[in-house]
Every structure is written in C-alpha cells, then in structure tokens.
# Entry
Amino acid sequence: MESTGFGPAEEAEADQLVRLALAEDLPGPDVTSEALIPPGARARGAFVPRGPGVVCGLPVVVKVFSALDARISARALVSDGREVEAGDRLLELDGPARGILAGERTALNFIQRLSGIATRTRRFRELLAGAGVELFDTRKTLPGWRHLEKYAVRAGGGTNHRLSLSDQALIKDNHVRILRALGGGGPREWVAALRQRFPGIPVELEVESIEELREALESGADVILLDNMSCEEMAAASREARRLTGPRPALEASGGIGPERLQEVAASGVDRISVGALTHSAPALDIGFDLWEVV
# Structure
C-alpha cells in the first residue's frame, strides 16, 4: 500500500484551500467577536469527536490557525489515521480567543470531512479483511480537494486509483463508443496505440460483458475494469482470466458497490474493488471544539 504521508502536493492544496476558506468566512472583521470579546482574552480548548471514527486532517487544522494568528499554539495529540473514540482530545489550541473563534468552523469543516472519508474507508477495509482484495478510490472528489480526499482514503487504509487523466489510461465505455463509431479497431489496437504514444503509462480497459472481457484479455491491458457486473458475471470473468497462460491483467470490480456487497464481490475472484462512495458520499465525522479555559 502506498504511503499515507502528507506530502508536498497535499501541503500545496491545503494552503490554497485554507486561504479560500478563510477569505470566504472573513471578507471583513468577525463582527461578533470584535464587538464582544476583549482583544487580550485568551482561550484553551480541543477538537473532540462525538463518536468513534478515524481522524484525518490535523495538519490542515494547524494551517488554519497559523494563517489566522501566529500566536495561536496548535498541538496535535494523535496522528492522522488513528482510530479514536468519543471524548478523545485530537488537537489542542491555546492563544488569542478572537483568532480561535474565527477559525473554529473553518477547521471543523476540514477535519470533519476528511475524517469522514478516512472512517468510511477503514470500515470498508475491515469488511474486506482476509480477502486479499485491494480497495481503491476513484476521481469522484470535490473539485480542488483531490489530493486531500485521496490522502484521507490512504489514512483509512485504502489505495488511490489514478490521480488525474494524465497518470493512467482508462478506456471507458464512451471512449469505446466513439472509437467503434469511427472504426478505430479494437482493444488490442487501442492498447498498442496508448503504449506507443505514452510508454510506461498503465492502461486499464473497461468492459460490460463476458464477451467484451474475452476480447480485452487479449489486448495487453494491465487492468480490466468490470463495470456494473453481477457477482455471477464477475466470477465467470475471473474464471476466464485464470485460463490465460503467463501474466494476466488484474480484474477490478466497480459500479455501485456498497458495504452490503463488498464481501460477495471479493469472493468472486476479482483482484481489486473501486468505490466512488469512499469520497463522494462519506458522511462527515461528528467532531466538536470544546473550550475549557478562558483568561
């Protein structure tokens, strides 16, 4: 499994999103705090989950408060990817009360969403324990959030599919329709053309039936995506693939696979499962910010 590290791409995306979020929330002064909170008031508090889950996004929270007021100390007490329980302290803040109040909601927006994705991914991984099947995400991410949401998937124990249209070829159904309409050959020719134009780029080919699979198995693709197939069809596809002598493409199941189907799909013999719902439908983890000292 690839590194879960918060690297340069995540850093850059987080910096940009934090700037946008704070500009959205603070086009002018925080009128409530400026009117009611003395400028010298200080506060201490912590981000605390209201229920169990997997925490993710702590480095982004630190960035929020660093951008608001360098006098705010933000100290993470756990690390991203950690299972936490209700009441655990995740990250403590100490500093000017006005700055803490100004950043509270923005920070929660980040950590709740990213922790929700990490939690959903971990629960899906747990259902696949022992099956020998990899769990992948998709490109169904919020615009501008791709690096962070895919980081959250890794924090939850999942694996990233392609990050963009540039780092892997995926010949999908609409590509096939256009190629067929233009008389553009078949899977073998498509894969060969990709390898000639972009050597070294992994190539994946989507199929929707056993007939298409048989043709795809001879194409030289690295991965064959079984789109919206029944478990019976996927099992048949696995048997077909295992008849090949020598190297064979990995089989990826995709298309509306929820937790209730994960184990059955894994038992069909596929190598990997991709689930868009890891990112596009993950519920936010309920996390609050609790103050315990004001001076």
User: Anything to note?
Assistant: The chain has a mean pLDDT of 96. The first strand starts at residue 42 and ends at 49. The radius of gyration is 23 Å. The chain has eleven helices and twelve strands.
